[in-house]
Amino acid sequence: MENKEKRIYKVVLTGGPCGGKTTGQSRLCTFFENLGWKVFRVPETATVLLSGGIKFSDLSEEEGYKFQENLLKTMLQIENTFFELGESCSRDCLIICDRGAMDASAFISRDKWERMMSANGWNSVELRDNRYNQIVHLVSAANGAEDFYSTEDHACRSETVVLARELDYNAAAAWVGHPYFDVIDNSTDFETKICRMIASVCQKLGIDTGDRLTTNSRKRKFLVRGPLPDDSIFPPFQDFDVVHNYLQTSTPSMQARLRKRGQKGHWSYIHTIRKPKMRGQVVEVKTQLTHRDYINMLAQRDDSHFTIFKRRRCFLDNNQYFQLDIYREPCHPRCIGLILLETYSALDNGALEKCLPKFLTLVEEVTGNPAYSMFNLSLREEWNKTTKFCRAFQGDDKEKIKINNNESPHEEREVNGGV
């Protein structure tokens, strides 16, 4: 019998007041326990401390800073206790964190956060990107489901709707930049919202849930016309340097790649395997790597592909999480000047179109278009001369958003010469 490698998956549930975290944590726990996983639930550190009689209004500015610093230290230690238990567990293990390290940054100024990082030898890439596998933000009912917003069932909650919206945005903004950040909004009823949350975790893990968690959330991709507007026009964002390398695989029906992603000299590393469609969905299995593992796996690089270099800008706009990929040289001429905007959404075309960033010039939606697949974009050979051009992971024939502008596409892309 084949021995499967044990999985430890660390997910943060965060969000504004009355977003469904408590219910979501319970439902996520039950779902994975029914799959045979061991589930640990890390309690919210702030609730533990605040229930001991601490009131922010009674603290001086410096006391408030020290409280946040000690809260974060306490949180990290509590989490580490559960993380170590996960390592020693013999079963697949899901660790659900009720908020995570970056949530603390939502409650202090940027200068104080940087001061705290420096004083403790921390950095945002480690605390945000490398510490947790996935972040799920459950949008507050105060934003889109106001009739259901209530503070009655939470001893430590007293926020007005207006304040709850502000806290919700700040909590989401704190995690902008994490490579696997899902925003679960209130565009559906609450039961569907919870199912979407569970489905987002299962999707990242490559777990087939059949039709138990049916949602219509999918990846949407748009071609952007440059030049980009000035940075001051963007909402708060995080920029990353990203490097992709495709690896050799034993079968052409599977793709494997390495991703190196970093800020200010701090890096995270991911190995991704894309498998053929199952139940109509492409399955991706992602594994976090150490730097040493990354270097070793680079030896399997597929020389028929260019290394892809990008600047990736992550931001929130209209409760939607976006990634803007700006391709950089050296690259194939087909990638020069290429800018692609990506998001995951369950919204219909009309609702999503209203959420698209108005400060960007969108040319067309290219979801499912093999000419904008990174695998094909990175091929060294011309598409009309190669046998490696791939359509297997594309073919999204759902109706796309029609962009109303007079811009011409990035370039005329001939794909008829592929396989």
UniProtKB/TrEMBL annotation:
Residues 10-192 form the NadR/Ttd14 AAA domain. It comes from the Eukaryota. InterPro entries: CYTH-like_dom_sf, NadR/Ttd14_AAA_dom, P-loop_NTPase, TRPL-trafficking_regulator. One of its GO terms (molecular function) is phosphatidic acid binding. GO terms for biological process: photoreceptor cell maintenance. This is NadR/Ttd14 AAA domain-containing protein. It comes from Cuerna arida. The lineage of its organism: Eukaryota, Metazoa, Ecdysozoa, Arthropoda, Hexapoda.
